[in-house]
Design brief:
single chain, 490 residues, alpha/beta, TIM Barrel, Rossmann fold, 2 domains, eight-stranded parallel β-barrel, four-stranded parallel β-sheet, 13% strand, globular
Length: 490
């Protein structure tokens, strides 16, 4: 498929319903502010007629199949019958599973962790893949699992997404690549806090307008956090993966951050070029109440109040249409009852969206699958992308560790897998650019950022397997367990 093959309104504006089982909906809440997406949370067939009516109005529905505390339960006959009801009226965009890095989405008392491969990652990926293949067989678009975009352990979205994609690459490469090539999209939840700003006219890209002076339709808006010039002036080198002392678990809290991470990882692992991304819930959040205090979650960035939130929301959608990567299709604001108050009235953002016509996104005819180049991200150096399994496996020891340390603590692992054991990341250069590489790094906590940036920034196609510990007995136990289970990577 190409990006142009996906059927949707081309209007990045979206709004999430307040919850399941509320119908019929007040369609004017979407039509008058010129929304192009509606996010529906379906417990039953309650939104089938609404979905059809929205499509007739040119508003594209996304249907999430909802069950409370669903965890990693399978796609069963009941859910399939429910899905068929929406497919039969023409719905194409679907979601299955939601923010599995949060305990509230699992059965009571279960604590999800991306390191729990057997109990969390395997059932999520296997059951999701079965569901996705069914959606594609019916001409729909399955959304890859959205995560709560946290940078705190054990919820850190970067670790979770890596666990997902690495499992697919090592165990279900061809099936997942087929899903990518035939209609998959990525669902994200970009609750972007105050990670945006507008430049002061004439004062350069790192200048910051105060909220009272922000104007939606004037230039100088930045929503590319953490890659915006202001952020880079404060903490140079920060990326969605982290890469700095202040971001040990990544920094995914930006409008396109997790979409960019997915596209970069999928390009390296599966050879994609541009996979569509939709923020199926999110926006500038927390929502500022009328006459309430300003919100300023990140004190480095300006605050926003009810009025400036409205200007920034319009600007965000226009930025998506004009400046976001071609694969980013929009975001559904969280949520209907925040923007339309239960006691009556509506948010200032609704007024501004009614007043200003939407800008439609000009989507280029880029193939989803490609040779590893995504416009705007530049060429790659070093080893080639991994397809299936890596051609080479290198074990790199952080400064202060030597090869004797490794062989004394992980002899059993080496006997099984025989990685090349080195202490210099520059040796990656000697891998031919038509061959792929996986790297296991053993590092103490204080050198993790350094080792990660040395490898990922220079060699983005390399699969990075990070082992963090200062305790030799802990490292020995980890590698012995891998050898016992036949797992090259954790």
């Amino acid at each position: 498929m190409r990006l142009t093959d996906y059927q949707w309104s081309r209007n990045p504006r979206g709004l999430h319903v307040q919850r399941a089982l509320i119908t019929p909906l007040d369609y004017s809440r979407w039509s008058q502010p010129n929304f192009g997406w509606v996010k529906l949370v379906a417990a039953r067939e309650e939104y089938v007629n609404d979905a059809l009516d929205f499509m007739n109005m040119g508003i594209t529905p996304i249907v999430r199949l909802w069950r409370p505390r669903f965890g990693a339960a399978p796609f069963n006959a009941e859910l399939r019958a429910l899905t068929d009801m929406y497919l039969n009226v023409g719905v194409k965009w679907f979601e299955f599973y939601n923010e599995p890095n949060l305990g509230v989405e699992w059965p009571e008392g279960f604590e999800p962790d991306w390191r729990n491969t057997a109990g969390v990652i395997v059932p999520l990926m296997e059951n999701w893949l079965v569901w996705a293949e069914y959606i594609i067989s019916r001409g729909g678009y399955p959304g890859f699992i959205p995560l709560a975009e946290s940078d705190n352990l054990p919820f850190a979205a970067i670790h979770w997404m890596d666990a997902f994609l690495n499992y697919m690459a090592q165990n279900r490469f061809e099936r997942f690549q087929n899903v990518l090539a035939n209609g998959m999209y990525v669902a994200t939840h970009p609750y972007i806090l105050n990670h945006f700003y507008q430049e002061v006219p004439g004062r350069g890209p790192t200048s910051v307008r105060q909220p009272l002076n922000q104007r939606a339709q004037e230039p100088g808006w930045h929503f590319e956090y953490p890659y915006d010039p202001f952020q880079q002036s404060l903490d140079p080198g920060r990326t969605v993966y982290g890469g700095t002392r202040l971001t040990p678990n990544g920094d995914p809290v930006g409008l396109i951050a997790m979409g960019r991470m997915f596209n970069e990882r999928a390009r390296a692992l599966f050879g994609t070029q541009a996979v569509p991304v939709v923020g199926t819930e999110g926006g500038i959040w927390p929502f500022p109440r009328q006459n309430g205090p300003a919100e300023q979650q990140d004190t480095r960035y300006p605050s926003y109040n009810h009025e400036s939130h409205a200007e920034a929301t319009v600007a965000m959608f226009e930025w998506i249409a004009r400046q976001a990567p071609p694969w980013f299709f929009g975001v559904c604001l969280w949520k209907e009852d925040d923007y339309y108050y239960p006691e009556g009235g509506h948010a200032r953002a609704i007024d501004r969206l009614r007043e200003i016509p939407p800008i439609l996104k000009n989507v280029p005819a880029i193939d989803v699958m490609g040779e590893g180049f995504v416009p705007g991200f530049g060429p790659f150096v070093g080893p080639a992308p991994i397809h299936g399994q890596a051609d080479f496996h290198m074990m790199i020891l952080a400064p202060g560790l030597d090869s004797r340390f490794f062989f004394e603590t992980a002899q059993g692992y080496w006997n099984v897998f025989r990685p090349v054991v080195v202490t210099d990341t520059n040796l990656i250069e000697f891998i031919p650019n038509d061959r792929s590489l996986a790297v296991t790094v053993i590092s103490p906590p204080e050198l993790v950022d350094t080792m990660t940036s040395l490898i990922q920034e220079r060699y983005p196609n390399v699969f990075l397997d990070l082992v963090i510990s200062e305790d030799t007995s802990e490292i020995a136990a980890l590698f012995n367990e891998r050898a016992r289970r036949g797992l090259r990577f954790g």
